[in-house]
Amino acid sequence: DAGVTQSPTHLIKTRGQQVTLRCSPKSGHDTVSWYQQALGQGPQFIFQYYEEEERQRGNFPDRFSGHQFPNYSSELNVNALLLGDSALYLCASSGTGPETQYFGPGTRLLVL
Amino acid sequence: GENVEQHPSTLSVQEGDSAVIKCTYSDSASNYFPWYKQELGKGPQLIIDIRSNVGEKKDQRIAVTLNKTAKHFSLHITETQPEDSAVYFCAARPTGGSYIPTFGRGTSLIVHP
Questions:
Q1: Contacts (Cβ under 8 Å, ≥6 apart) of B94
Q2: Best residue in A36, A37, A53, A68 to probe B by mutation, most B CBs within 10 Å?
Q3: Which pLDDT tens digit goes with each residue over A24-41?
Q4: Residues A58, A75 contacting (CB under 8 angstroms)
Q5: How close does chain B come to A38, measured CA to CA in Å?
């Protein structure tokens, strides 16, 4: 049984560019959450998708947007990249309701 | 919102010693407390969790304790091994809403052979 998968593993962009990160949830999971983890920090919640809709959002600007597809996979889009967007972006999946979240390996984004 | 404090930020022990990491939380509505281990270059992996109706839970060399009155919980690792070296995160999750956990800032555990 495959766990949570993310692509790409690493990405280098320049300021002002746009980026799309992808996530496939663990089999049987229908809820996907995205987190940003800066160096030396804990994961910070960006938003959560369920039934193809954004269900809850953390304290992140509108430059961060997402999408969930009918097969429960998800994308995270970041527009107008800033140097401060450099971080590890983590996807976590869970079942419906108060289920434990399982994390993917993350995508390391570097903005130059 | 929830605020989770985690201490220490760095913990260095000798192989075979015990390690204890402590967390406090602010929201009395939180009722689920997972612990994650993150190795270099990898995503956080769940190692143990505890719910608010339980005071202690153990899994081999790892145990977690919860004091709801004081709003703190701790991770205990006994007989540490070099492969236990990693960053450990605690988290607290509320009872309602979309069940989003709030994470501590992490503890870097270094086990010296």
A1: B2, B27, B29, B30, B31, B100
A2: A37
A3: 999 999 999 999 999 889
A4: no
A5: 10
